[in-house]
Write a structure and sequence with these properties.
The protein is an all-alpha fold and about 260 residues long. About 60% of the residues lie in helices and about 0% in strands. It has a single domain, classed as TorD-like.
Length: about 260
């Protein structure tokens, strides 16, 4: 005979695990928004998402989040110019994974991009035509990880054990082989060039969130040593919209699946 108490405990444990996945998804989605191009209305939209974010995170994550939120609520001047200065054109800080590497990256950019795209295709994800960008962009990778958390939570709710296991395995591999490998050198550049920019606070939160996720999942990515040499023929041709006076604000280039 089944013990009702044990059933209740099992249900409570399942609910907690699902809520944890959804909290993680919300945080990664917020981070993707934070590094996206700050088009008109961006500041208010991000602030609204911040205020709706669940508060049950590790202490170090919450400390970084509250520091960032304080800066964001105080207002951010010249956000567009700062995004352009750091991340666009002849960027000081690349938000693309394949801008970083070392001897472990034997196959080069085409192989890495193909592998990342393979993850997306396996879960039915594709970049939108309205905001196309390389699949290795930070915002796209963060959104993908967020969506995998949602998919895993849904599989749990539906009691789809195989689908849950596949999704969990894919997110772990993506964290270990891609997202977790290049943030260390990218964040070092951001801190070097970011000055008092609010993007340094976004970087601090990103680092703590990813580190906590790796700790929780017992994953140890092998970080790249630094940026790969710049190839001027491959240089990003994006022109900062603040350099001219366009008739309309540009769509944010990165981040949508």
């Amino acid at each position: 005979m089944t013990d009702p108490t044990q059933e209740t405990m099992a249900d409570d444990d399942l609910t907690e695990r699902m809520e944890e996945l959804l909290r993680t998804a919300a945080m990664f989605q917020l981070l993707a928004m934070g590094f996206a191009y700050p088009a008109e209305g961006h500041h208010a939209t991000v602030l609204e998402r911040m205020r709706a974010l669940p508060s049950r995170f590790a202490e170090e994550v919450l400390m970084a989040f509250h520091a960032l939120r304080g800066q964001w609520e105080a207002g951010t001047e010249h956000l567009e110019e700062e995004h352009c200065r750091l991340f666009q054109g002849r960027k000081l800080v690349s938000l693309h994974e394949t801008s970083f590497g070392d001897a472990r990256r034997i196959g080069g950019q085409p192989v890495e991009l193909s592998d990342i795209s393979g993850f997306y295709r396996a879960f039915g994800m594709q970049l939108t035509e309205s905001n196309p960008d390389m699949p290795d962009h930070l915002c796209t990778e963060l959104e993908f990880y967020s969506l995998l958390m949602v998919k895993q939570a849904y599989a749990m709710d539906q009691e789809w054990a195989e689908e849950e296991a596949i999704t969990a395995d894919a997110s772990g591999k993506f964290l270990e082989l891609h997202l977790g490998r290049w943030l260390t050198p990218m964040l070092a550049l951001l801190r070097e060039h970011g000055g008092e920019s609010v993007y340094v606070a976004w970087g601090d939160l990103l680092e703590r969130v990813v580190n906590e996720e790796c700790r929780r999942r017992a994953i140890t990515p092998q970080p790249f040593s630094g940026p790969v040499p710049l190839d001027d023929m491959q240089e990003d041709q994006f022109t900062c919209p603040m350099a001219t006076t366009p008739p309309e604000a540009p769509e944010p280039p990165p981040g949508n699946l």
